[in-house]
Here is the input.
Amino acid sequence: MAGLRKSLLALGNLRHKLEALLASRRSSPGVAGECSQLHELTAFGSNPGNLRMQVLVPERLQRRPALVVALHGCGQSAADYDHGTGWATLADRYGFVVVYPEQQPSNNPKTCFSWFAPGDIARDHGEALSIQQMVEHAITEFGIDRRRVFVTGLSAGGAMASVMLATYPEVYAGGAIIAGLAYGRAGSVQEAFAAMLTEQSPSARALGDRVRAASGHRGPWPRISVWHGSADQIVKPSNAGHIARQWADLHGLAGAPTRSELIAGHTRRVWSDAGGNTVIEAFSIAGMAHGVPIAASTEAEPCGAAGPFFHDVGLSSTHHIARSWGLDDGRSQARSTRARGSVALTTRANGAGEDTAAASLGSKPNRHRLPALDRVIAGAFEAGGLPAADSLRQGPGTPSPLDPGAVIGAALKAAGLRR
Here is the structure.
């Protein structure tokens, strides 16, 4: 009895802490505009999870469009999430479809997806099946290219994105989890609060095994993008590391990233496969609280809107994710993330870590260590919007079209070695 009382007290304390944190961040009500382009579809399946299906279909749809499934956070609606992230802006621009599953207050008074409930996170059951039925309905209704189906979400929606990637990995080409949690981190409300608010260290193998047990699929696995604010007090930033470790284990990759870099003052860690392709990336957004990173005031073509749980940090997760998934079909006029001034921090050559402390998951990079010269110069070319250095090499006796001194100066500046 004493143990039960202690558990109930701990649960109550965690619940009060979470509600206080949510209240402190939510300074205004939902900001979804009255001109939302979303419309509801109802006849999409048996819907055992009792969710609503909101859809954004642009007027100019590609012939074989991609599909993005976007899952809102607690206290939000589908329209709120669409307005804050700006997915509709990019869907209109590039002609892909967005499905917004929406939680109902009758399921959860705070409209959180049930990412911790065993009956809702198993393949072909509950909310997971409802979302999958939405995906299948959209594929049929709008002629979706099955090779280009993606899922993303914030907080509870991010954790639910983990659920979809784990339970239906053969369906999704990629997923982006923002301020979320790894699959299988909780099987009850109490475990959910503990996973969100306390530091835990599950092993990579145990995390990977939870996904392997979720379906009969054994690969290939989706590509994963992870985003988390370093000052998040609602979902501990260490959860981003759990997600990266979970998928690194599934992809058969080492726990240490292949490389790390700074982008607009934020850290991006990358895990590459044997072919050099990015399989997992994890962004740590410096000083950001719980929410979605956007760049509403700095992008040449902004999308999204700052507000509660949508933070203007000068880096748009929506833009970056869309480009990494190829949703712009190479037609985006915005520069790539790297071209906006990233600086390499660490690399691993031939599979061996050059700087183990910097490369280890969740560790701080050694910023005093100099990047390789060729990487620095390549970064300088990209930062200046110039073609790759290899393409400028001329035959013997042919003068270079560029001033070497200027290139080296730009490289030093890009590396932070010259002002």
User: Anything to note?
Assistant: DSSP finds twelve helices and 14 strands in the chain.
